[in-house]
Amino acid sequence: MSGTMVLVRHGQSEWNKKNLFTGWKDPDLTELGIEEAETGAKALKDYGIKFDIAFTSVLVRAEKTCQIILDGIGQSDLETIHDQALNERNYGDLAGLNKDDARAKWGEEQVHIWRRSYDVPPPGDDGESLKDTGARVWPYYMTDILPRVLRGQKVLVAAHGNSLRAMVMILDRLSTQEVTGLNLATGVPMVYKLNPDSTVASKEVLGDMSGAH
């Protein structure tokens, strides 16, 4: 058996609460988001894991979730690497728009395609599809995160719905069609134990995924 990797989506942000497309914008956690991160921390403490290193994005909602978890398990000073490769997908021209307003302007079906499809980016030169997000997440995972896990380290990754969906797609061997239906709950740790060949030996969800969106 190789190491263990825990993936956690950040807790609710102020823009999640307002139903806004967020992407690379940088709102903070809400009180509920802080509670979700604390609940994730308690689940990991009960699980009994201690990490060797943590990774997060450069966006405050993920960074703060990561720190709340580390504080909650008694590892406040753990080495943490912040990299924009783990940022949420860039929502382009949709960033900052209310999702209901976007549906009124472009139609329910088109907005759903932008949100959930694998390879259709939202409007705007910098808009990223899940495929585009994966194009920066996957190399970073392969070169920076996975080698540590294969050396037997225990690694925490606190990031975002779509950057983590890209990782889970590879780990769970989901097709481009299957990944469109994948939703990750906020603040719920997913514990992966990997085989020496980097395939998944086991996956355990420490909490309730019914709140996934």
Automatic annotation (TrEMBL):
The keyword Isomerase applies. GO terms for molecular function: phosphoglycerate mutase activity. CDD domains: HP_PGM_like. The record marks H160 as: Transition state stabilizer. The active site is at H10 (tele-phosphohistidine intermediate), E88 (proton donor/acceptor). It comes from the Bacteria. It catalyses: (2R)-2-phosphoglycerate = (2R)-3-phosphoglycerate. One of its GO terms (biological process) is glycolytic process. Signal peptide: none annotated. Substrate binds at residues 9-16, 22-23, 61, 88-91, 99, 115-116, 161-162. It holds the Pfam family His_Phos_1. Pathway: Carbohydrate degradation; glycolysis; pyruvate from D-glyceraldehyde 3-phosphate: step 3/5. Its EC number is 5.4.2.11. Keywords: Gluconeogenesis, Glycolysis, Isomerase. Belongs to the phosphoglycerate mutase family. BPG-dependent PGAM subfamily. Catalyzes the interconversion of 2-phosphoglycerate and 3-phosphoglycerate. Homodimer. This is 2,3-bisphosphoglycerate-dependent phosphoglycerate mutase. It comes from Oricola cellulosilytica.
